């Protein structure tokens, strides 16, 4: 008869580790949830553009026209970012969208909430972005904003140039009137005094006096400018003069700077280590101690600086690492230094002017007046010439400013192709990562055992044999691999009085039927007479493995006492006799341990080894009653398949019945996984022997 050697679907499923079912399901569920949430999130598109902003002039020459974007804030880039988000620009942008008939037109507040403008690092460039749920709408609205910004910038530049030209023309008219008056006064004085000639010394003293007066005016203007700047910086810092100086002293202290950098590095290390260690870890404690010590040193250093300054320092109010605050403090100290320098120069110039005036007091008044009138006429003529040139330049700048501002759009926005949010690759990657984390947790906390050490810890039995996978579940005995290592491990435990081996397992489909068949074939190949009994009335399988009829068998022996009539000899192994389940549909409860012991005694004289295949403990908990008839108990456990709970319940009942087991056969493991358990077992035996 042709045998069917194909592997059934159940065997194929058993080759997949059971412990991977739950982690795999958890992983797929997490990934699917992440993908669904990503798909449900609204897509946001971001259109971008860049604007070049003219920096503040660093030359010593006087600017004829101050760029409007350089006069509002300390940085033209910051000014441009504030202007582009201002109500004037956004209102003009809304009008542009309405003129272009863009539907729908967002409100001004809505546009402001989705608009961002930030300076590019180390460049005179401003990055502008607008976010919307529609990519075309995002680029269209940003286009309108940039057009409105250019229009406002051009109007401001042109307005600034016009105001400067008008002011310069008024200044020229005033200087022209003054020059005419000075020229007329000089002519009248010469006519009246017959052109009194002036010695060279008087002319030199008058020039020196005029230069001193001009220098005094310059110093006064400089002092007023510096005081105004200092007051503004004090208001920005929220500190008085003394507090501002103390704050600058704290920011410039090298000791405090080193300590703050050390504290920042320690805090960064502490944050990175807290993800891997608990608060009780020595690394964490060491960093906390270092941070506390640095903080104490900072407080001690601040206290010492306060003693040197003669007052107590409020660290929270005066000490800060903020870069903007540091720049304001430096500007304040620089302005104060310039004020002190101007005061010193003013004092010296006033003293020089007083000396010059004292020397001029001895010169005849007429000569002094003539020289003064001549000097005034020369100065007014030169000032008029300079002002006329400035008016000409202002007129040219006004013409240029009418179509050119100090900003320029580098690249205009285009409709974005992919959304900025949600970031699909990032979200899917995070979903996969989180799914792997949950899968690992589900694997560690899964319901099945997956380590040999765990099986030995629960059952507290030695490991006699192990295999990577079960033999092929074929229909011929030749397809079953003899387990000679298991046979050798069990053979030294057998004797004439102990020849019955009962094979059982805590859970169903652990492979005990194939283990029992393989062990029986191994004993039969070694020359021993073997009797193999199928006592698994719940799930019989020996008759299918060896290709023999199911009956008569064990259940028929229950009804009609005929021990020899139920024997079936194996064709491949003459020394192997098999008792199958039988024809009668009986449950396990109908097979008593007394009847089984009678059957074993009836064949004990004819067989060297008797192997009994029992049902799994999970299917028939009362199968422990059959173990009373056994001499040796062999427990089969399939890693990644057998339930941890089933093993614990089996061990509890085994200990309760006070039955001794020979050992464990592991299915689904390798030599490398078992060697550690065996070494630990040998070490324990050596320690017990030494004690």
Proportion of strand residues: 5-15%
Category from helices, strands and their pairing: alpha/beta
Number of strands: 12
The overall pLDDT, averaged over residues, is 75
- Largest beta sheet: strand ordering: 5-12-11-6-10-7-9-8
Helix segment tally: 22
How are the secondary structure elements laid out?
Layout: H1 9-14, H2 21-40, E1 45-53, H3 76-84, H4 87-99, H5 108-113, E2 115-119, E3 125-132, H6 135-193, H7 200-237, H8 241-252, H9 254-274, H10 282-309, H11 315-318, H12 323-360, H13 365-401, E4 407-411, H14 424-444, H15 452-459, E5 463-467, H16 484-491, E6 500-504, H17 512-525, E7 530-534, H18 542-546, H19 554-559, E8 568-569, E9 576-579, H20 593-604, E10 609-613, E11 632-638, H21 644-657, E12 663-667, H22 671-690
Parallel strand pairs: 5-12, 6-10, 6-11, 7-9, 7-10, 11-12
Antiparallel strand pairs: 1-3, 1-4, 2-3, 8-9
Helix pairs in contact: 2-14, 4-6, 6-13, 7-12, 7-13, 8-12, 9-10
């Amino acid at each position: 008869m042709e045998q069917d050697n194909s592997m059934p679907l159940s065997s194929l499923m058993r080759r997949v580790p059971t412990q991977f079912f739950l982690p795999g399901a958890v992983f797929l569920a997490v990934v699917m949830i992440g993908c669904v949430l990503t798909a449900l999130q609204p897509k946001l598109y971001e259109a971008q553009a860049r604007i070049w902003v003219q920096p503040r002039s660093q030359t010593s020459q006087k600017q004829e026209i101050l760029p409007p974007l350089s006069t509002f804030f300390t940085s033209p880039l910051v000014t441009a970012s504030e202007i582009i988000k201002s109500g004037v620009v956004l209102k003009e942008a809304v009008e542009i969208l309405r003129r272009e008939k863009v539907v729908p037109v967002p409100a001004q507040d809505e546009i402001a909430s989705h608009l961002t403008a930030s300076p590019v690092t180390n460049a005179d460039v401003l990055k502008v972005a607008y976010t919307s749920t529609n990519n075309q709408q995002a680029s269209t609205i940003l286009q309108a904003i940039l057009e409105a910004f250019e229009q406002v910038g051009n109007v401001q530049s042109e307005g600034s140039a016009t105001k400067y030209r008008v002011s310069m023309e008024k200044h020229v008219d005033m200087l022209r009137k003054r020059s005419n008056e000075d020229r007329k006064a000089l002519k009248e004085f010469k006519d009246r005094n017959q052109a009194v000639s002036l010695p060279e010394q008087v002319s030199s003293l008058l020039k020196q006096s005029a230069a001193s007066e001009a220098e005094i005016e310059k110093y006064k203007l400089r002092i007023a400018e510096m005081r105004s700047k200092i007051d503004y910086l004090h208001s920005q810092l929220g500190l008085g003069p003394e507090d501002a100086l103390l704050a600058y002293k704290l920011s410039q202290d090298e000791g405090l700077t080193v300590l703050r950098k050390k504290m920042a590095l320690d805090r960064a290390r502490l944050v990175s280590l807290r993800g891997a260690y608990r608060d009780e870890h020595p690394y964490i404690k060491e960093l906390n101690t270092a941070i506390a010590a640095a903080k104490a040193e900072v407080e001690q250093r601040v206290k010492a600086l306060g003693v040197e300054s003669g007052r107590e320092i409020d660290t929270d109010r005066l000490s800060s690492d903020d870069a903007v605050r540091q720049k304001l403090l430096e500007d304040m100290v620089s302005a104060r230094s310039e004020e002190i320098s101007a005061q010193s120069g003013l004092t010296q110039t006033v003293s020089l002017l007083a000396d010059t005036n004292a020397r001029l007091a001895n010169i005849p008044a007429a000569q002094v007046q003539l020289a003064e009138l001549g000097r005034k006429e020369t100065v007014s003529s030169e000032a008029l010439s300079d002002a006329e040139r400035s008016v000409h330049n202002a007129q040219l700048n006004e013409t240029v400013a009418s179509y050119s501002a100090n900003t320029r759009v580098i690249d205009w926005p285009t409709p974005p192709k992919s959304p900025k949010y949600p970031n699909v690759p990032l979200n899917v990657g995070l979903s996969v990562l989180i799914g792997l984390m949950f899968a690992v947790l589900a694997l560690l906390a899964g319901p099945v055992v997956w380590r040999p050490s765990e099986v030995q810890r629960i059952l507290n039995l030695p490991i006699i044999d192990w295999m990577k996978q079960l033999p092929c579940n074929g229909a011929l005995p030749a397809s079953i691999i003899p387990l000679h290592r298991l046979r050798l491990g069990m053979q030294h435990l057998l004797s004439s009085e102990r020849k019955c081996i009962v094979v059982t397992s805590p859970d169903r489909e652990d492979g005990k039927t194939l283990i029992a068949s393989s062990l029986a074939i191994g004993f039969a190949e070694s020359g021993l007479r073997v009797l193999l009994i199928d006592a698994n009335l719940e799930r019989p399988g020996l008759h299918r493995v060896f290709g023999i009829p199911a009956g008569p068998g064990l259940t028929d022996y229950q009804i009609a006492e005929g021990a020899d009539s139920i024997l079936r000899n194996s064709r491949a192994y003459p020394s192997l006799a098999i008792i199958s389940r039988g024809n009668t549909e009986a449950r396990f409860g109908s097979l008593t341990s007394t009847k089984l012991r009678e059957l074993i005694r009836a064949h004990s004289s004819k067989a060297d080894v008797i192997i009994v295949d029992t049902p799994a403990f999970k299917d028939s908990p009362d199968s422990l009653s059959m173990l009373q008839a056994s001499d040796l108990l062999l427990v089969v456990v399939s890693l990644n398949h057998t339930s941890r709970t089933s093993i614990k319940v089996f061990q509890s009942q085994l200990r309760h019945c006070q039955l001794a087991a020979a050992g464990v056969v592991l299915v689904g493991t390798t030599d490398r996984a078992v060697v550690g358990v065996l070494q630990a077992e040998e070490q324990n035996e050596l320690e017990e022997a030494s004690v």
